[in-house]
Amino acid sequence: MATLTFIGAGNMSSSIIGGLIEQGYSPNDITASDPNTDGLAAIHNKLGIQTTTSNNEACKTCDVI
After folding, report:
1. Residue 65 contacts residue 59 (beta carbons within 8 Å)
2. 3: which of 18, 36, 49, 55 is 20 to 30 A away, CA to CA?
3. What angle in degrees, to the nearest 10, is found between the helix axes of 37-47 and 11-22?
4. H/E stretch holding 25
5. Is 33 helix (H, G, I), strand (E, B) or coil?
């Protein structure tokens, strides 16, 4: 599967990512970036995805942004 990066880790991204995971997408293949560390911690704890505060870092190795 392609690796995905979401710029922003708010409600919209969380909903989309949750749906992807429910359909069988691996959380290991999904990263979200956001300057809000509390939001990143929440989405990581809820969905198990990778997170970062750096958009550049998030986009370095992904297939789709």
Report:
1. yes
2. 36
3. 20
4. none
5. strand
pLDDT reported for residue 52: 97
CA distances from 32 to 1, 41 (A): 17, 11
- Residue type present at position 1: M
Reported as a single tens digit per residue, the pLDDT across 7-49 is 999 999 999 999 999 999 999 999 999 999 999 999 999 999 9
* Sequence letter at residue 54: S
Query: Is 60 exposed, middle or buried, given 0-12, 13-18 or 19+ CB atoms closer than 10 A?
Result: exposed
Cβ-based neighbours of 20, under 8 Å, separated by 6 or more = 4, 30
Q: Read off the DSSP letter of residue 17.
A: H
